[in-house]
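Fold these two proteins, one after the other.
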Amino acid sequence: MNLNAPQIRYQEVSPFQMSEGFTPSQSRNHTMEPVKTGRIFLAAVAANLSAFAVGTCLGWTSPVTPKLKSSDTSDSPLDHPIDSTDEAWISSIVALGALVAPFVAGPLADKIGRKWVLLSSSLFFVIAYALMMVGGSVAVLLVARLVQGFGVGFVMTVQPMYVGEIATDSVRGATGSLMQLFIVSGILYVYCIGPFVSYQALQWCCIVVPIVFDACFFFMPESPYYLAGKGRKMEALKSLQFLRGQSASGAQDEMAGIQASVEESMANKGSVTDIIKNPGNRKALFISAGLLVFQQFSGINVVLFNSQSIFQSAGTDLDPAVATIIIGVVQVASSGLTPIIADRMGRKIILLISSSVMTVGLAALGTFFYMKLKVGDVSSVLWLPVPALVVYNIVYCVGFGPLPWAVMGEMFPANVKSIASSIVASTCWMCGFLVTYFYPALDALGTYYAFWLFGIFCVVAFFFVLFVVMETKGLSLQEIQDKLNGK
């Protein structure tokens, strides 16, 4: 007997492989094919062009509000300056639209697919910018901003689901972090153009973004998880082949795992009751919603919506429009770091660093405005607002900006993902509305109150991450579920 003879190991053929016509010989003869992650990033980048459109909505008020408040109405759609109440509603009503939209977008994502819901979000953006072009009253601007909010809610609910489902375990942190990079790129786009072109020209520059997104994303595949859940097995396999750059035999093992995971989740179709009753789902909801609540109460939307006004009130030597552009550039540059470090350092440590340093930046900014009001002479620290906001934005864009959405995209099982994502996204935007609506009132009392309050929330966020948030670096979606459920 030749003990050195090569041993042949026969691989078991899964039910999925047998149902799709794979033979035992095909299963045992296929070699391990490498995953071409470039395909995953191509689809993720195309999907994130929708996040770029979201950024144009979030940054829109910074260059436009000074035009609307100006007594010179030659470059305003209105025939009179807006007051503080109008300003508060124009800034905050986007969040109300984004609050409602997830309860439509989530179920639609399960019914017609992640891809088609994302594509349909562009319709809201196009309608909104068209209304802004023709509107001659505050009421029309409010309707347009509300419609923008619907588009924002569609994207922020479904895009993390899509990107989380197309990625491999090794790059899910990186692809999930791309959303923040594209949002701040959209914000920078508006910051750079808005102060230097007419109101009407800005709307034309913004309306082209969702059209470009649809043209690019139309050619990307649907999520293989969604297709598997609908019983469209061959379409799911083809989608996975495209995303992995593999042959049918090379992708079959992962496809079998996806099919088994989806079937297990869909066997017990989820509802709100299942989220509440299941300890793992309950913990996932608490972590995801908690991170996004603290994201909003860090004051980021106040900074994004009012950057130009904040620098004007600070009275720095730097032109407010230029200072705002600097902030935008910093946001884009720092957001580019997250995809590189998220899967190396881990989500938790980055969030801890982010909340700590944001606290310092907000405390410094609050102290500056306190000195300006109480002391009067701040010439010795007139330089402080710009670096304070730069530091704040760097650590936000690396940590608390992208990672809460990335965590949400990987926390929930398939049977409750759409419902849970809708609840979490709506919670986020409810907080966003409260912060942006009441900021003008806090600002009237003293700008330092607002920034110190945001700093206190960042301190609480640090301890929330430290004691509640679990690390998901390197874990598969199934391993995350096992960890949540204490297995």
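Now the second one:
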Amino acid sequence: MEANKRQLEVKLDHECIYVFERKEEMAPSKFRRKVWQILPSISTLMCLPFGIMLGWPSPTYPTLIQPGAPVWISMDQSAMIAGFLMIGNTVSTPFSSIQRIGAKYGIIIGASLITIGWIVMWQARDVFWLLGSRFLIGAGNGFGTGQVKLYINEICQDSLAQTMAKQINLYVFLGVFLAFSYGPFVDFRNFSIITSIISVLVLFLAIFLPSTPRELVKSGKMTEARKLIAFLSPDLSVSEEIVKIKERINAPDNSISFCDLVKKESLRKNFAIFACLVFFQQFSGAPATVVYSQMIFEKAHCPRPEMCALVYSLMFLIANFYGIFCVPSHNKKYVLLFSSIGVSVLLVLNIIVLVEEANVHFWQFTSLVILLLYILVHVVGLGTVPFLLIPELFPKEVNKIMVQFLIMSNSMFALIITKIFQVLLTNFGLVTPLCLFLTVSTFSIIFVIIFVPSKSNNKSNNT
């Protein structure tokens, strides 16, 4: 009996070792899991064609306003065409948090709208085609961006998801740079064809994105869901994660609506501060200078305005990269104050340069240098900080509605200031809209000093 017992123990030990070794052999490496989590972040590429359309007006308008253009437009129509991208973005943003269809299929819908929009632009015959194209692309981005965020949060671990989510804006600004890079050197049709190809490739990649654990559980594919969770998070209990996913699916939405936000006295003041910061962000001029950058450098008598605009877009990209990854570690109020003062000083210098015609009599690139510093200082402060202040000014259950408000108000304010800039530029020249920007940025200095808190007051909001 004793001998048989020992043999049985040895046999069990060998079987346990064999099973352990097989698990080790079958378990994916940590590097492989990280790579697998990063690959689905290609969903953020959906924002690239939108960014190209965002930068499309600057290299395209100088051609389209000329007689004999493939699609002729007037200068008055240019701001309206630019604004339809923002209208589409605004209209679709409230629907971007819908989870009923699944994040993957939401991304496919957004990418499809963007692709159709670029094909419409390629086939454009008159201004109404341009309006329809811009609206479709804006709508695709407004809806798809929210779905991309949902997808990343469902497929990636929290630490990685935060980094991946930051790529969304970077791809938008990279798209702007690409538009400035090849836009001046190809005609209207070829510009649209190139970007249509990019959009089709992004749509193709979106179709082959893997489903998230939430989508698999919701569709009843429990075996696949368990395998995916075990692969992504081998240190966690698969059963517990399945239970948590089911609870999240069935849990009611505790987010506060916009009406509830306005009703709460403790949140109204912070909302007013936030709304004013968004106003200062847009009306201090950055959106209009990006849309009309090539025309601005041409009117400022800078040589090779298309190359000046390209350098301007590169600085815009670099400044946003710094703002997204580096500014969060700084004191937000001090960054805003530095940005508001810097923007005001640089606008004053640029007005003096234009009035004294320094680009003609002194140095041809004076306005270029000043505008490069302007967009740098603007983006790292006024352009970035309002978004970073959301978790500091508001409790967690308000974050979703405030992000949507930021996107929608940004789009509408950008539309309005772009139209105002176009009217002032056409009727009074370049100095007048710069004076308007200077007035707004000067008021922003006073506002930041008086109303923006130095530290987070989120604790008081939560109580």
